[in-house]
Amino acid sequence: MHGIKTVGVVGAGQMGGGIAQVAAVAGFQTIVYDAYPASIERCKADHPKRLGRLVEKGAMKKEEADAALGRLKYVSALDAFGSCDIVIEAIVEDVKAKHDLFVKLAEMFAKIPGEQILATNTSSISITEIAAATRHIKGPSVAAPEQVIGMHFFNPVPVMKLVEVIKGLATSQRTTERTISLATAMGKTPIPANDRPGFVSNRVLMPMINEAFYAWMEGVAEPAHIDEIMKLGCNVPMGPLRLADFIGLDTCVHIMDVLADGLNNDRYRACPLLRQLVIAGRLGDKSGRGVFEYPKK
Ligand code: CAA
Fold first, then answer.
1. What is the DSSP pairing of strand 86-89 with strand 117-120?
2. At what angle do helices 272-279 and 201-217 cross, to 10 degrees?
3. Whether the model pTM is above 0.85
4. Which end of the chain has fewer CB atoms < 10 Å from its terminal CB, N or C?
C-alpha cells in the first residue's frame, strides 16, 4: 500500500549508506546523494564490500547482491531526486541544514505530480519543527508538512531491526501508514512514537548512558567494569560506555541537551565528564578514542 518504487537518500555517511543498502536489497530503486563528493565515493566503495560480505556468509546469493548493486545510483545533484517517491534525509544533526534541505526538496516536489514523502532520520530534532520549514510551499503537488515524517533508523542499519516512526503535529495518517508499510517492506520493524524530545529510544537510552558516565566520574567502578556489569546483568550487546563511543560522545551530549532543553528539566543535563571528553576531542570510535581506545585497523 506504500506505492513506493524509488527511494532517495540524502547523506551518504554511515546511516545514509546503511539505509540505501537496505532499500536496494529490499528491491527499491535507490538514489544516494551527498553534498561531499568524498562521502559519495566512500559509500559507493562500501556497498559492494558489505554486500560481498553477506554473500560470503551465505546470507545472500551473489545474483541478489548484484541486483541490489544495480538498483543503487549515486548522484552529485539533488535534481536527480525528481523520480523519488520518498526521500530519507540522513545529514548532519543541524536544524538549519535540515530546514534548508527540506525547503529545497518540497519546492522541487511541489512541481512534480505525486505524493512524495519527506522523511528524516533525525535522532532528536523535532519532526514538527523540520516540517514547519515547508509550510509556505504551495503547488499542484505539495510535499508540505502533512508529508513530512520521522524515520529513525539505528546503527548499524543493516543489522538493527527497529525503525521508530515519528509523526509530527501535521503529519497525515496516510503518510504514517505508507511509511510504516515501506519500513516493513525494507525488512524492518516500524514502531510509532510521538514527536516529543528524544522520542522513545533516546528518551530512555541517553539518560542510561549519561548515568554510566556519572558512575565512572564518581568512581563507582572503572569503565570496563561498568560495561561488563551492564552487559552481563542486562543482556545487552554493548555496555553503555562502549555504546556511547559507538554512537559518538558529541552526539550523546547533543541529545542530552535536546532532552534537557525540550523537557525543561536539569536531570537530563549531560554529565560533566562526558562533556569534558567531547571538549578534549575524544568523540569515540570516529576519533579513535572516547571512553576506550580504538587503534586504526
Ligand atoms: N554494517 C553492517 N553490518 C554490520 C556492521 C555495520 N556497520 N557492524 C556489524 N555488522 C554485522 C555484521 O554482519 C557482523 O557479522 P559478520 O562478522 O559475519 O560480518 C555482525 O553484525 C556482528 O558483528 P561483529 O561480529 O563485528 O560484532 P558484534 O557481534 O559485537 O556485533 C553490533 C556488532 C551489531 C554492532 C552489536 O554489538 C550491537 O548490536 N551493538 C548495539 C548496537 C546498538 O545499540 N545500536 C543502536 C545505537 S543508538 C542509535 O543508533 C540511534 C541514535 O539515535 C543514537
1. parallel
2. 90
3. yes
4. C
Compute the distance from residue 74 Cα to the ligand 1 centre, in Å: 25
Task: Report the topology of domain 6-193.
Answer: Rossmann fold (3.40.50)
Ligand 1 centroid vs 272 CA: distance in angstroms? 28
Look up the CATH superfamily of 202-287: N-(1-d-carboxylethyl)-l-norvaline Dehydrogenase; domain 2 (1.10.1040.10)
Tens of pLDDT, residue by residue over 256-295, are 999 999 999 999 999 999 999 999 999 999 999 999 999 8
- Please list the residue range(s) of the chain that carry CATH number 3.40.50.720: 6-193
**Order of strands, sheet of 72-75, starting from the edge strand that comes earlier in the sequence:** 72-75, 29-33, 6-10, 86-89, 117-120, 148-153, 162-167, 189-194
* 258: CB partners within 8 A, 6+ apart: 124, 125, 197, 198
Q: Is 154 in the pocket of ligand 1 (CB under 6 A)?
A: yes
Instruction: Map residue 120 onto helix, strand or coil.
Output: strand
